[in-house]
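stuck on this chain:
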Amino acid sequence: MEQDKLREELKYILENEPENYSKILKLSSELSKFDQDSVRFSIDAGIIDRLGKELVARHETAVSELVKNAYDADAKKVKLTFIDSSEIGGIIVINDDGVGMTKEQLVNGFMRLASSDKIHYPFSPIYNRKRAGKKGIGRFAAQRLGKQLTITTQTEDSEQALEITINWDDFKNDQDLMFIDNKIEYKIRMPKKRSGTRLVIKNLRDKWTEAQ
């Protein structure tokens, strides 16, 4: 039976490749389909593209949301750099000096859809600012702007910076959102800042003019 085959494969992976979390996750998910008493929601990866278009209609709004996220992180300075952005395919860099994110905050905040972080923490940690960004819109704002996002972030206490690169084209229809991996890399701390976050958005979907 397929069910027995999956169990044997999962047992083998757990014994011989215990850190192959992607494989363990996929096998466990496949096994759960044989549950006769319960059913579970799953999410098609294509929802990322749909939500990006529906929640953030204009690219100017998308940039505004990302700046609000920096404000929510107690940034005193936010620098926006536009590179070759007069044509489709350019780059936007958003650099702030906010509190940055720990690995836990990155995983359970930014990488979690419909995160409850702003419900539990409605005010910023240092300046007690009322959070301005809409709940969960930031990641979709980044997707709305360009095809690739690289997040580099560090807190005041972290020994290294954390970096994730997300290729939004990987989030295609007819595959499970849960199975798309985004690797965390540990980098040398960003110079000249105690803490903060840098967003590099590449392959812009729209042209930008000086008037915008």
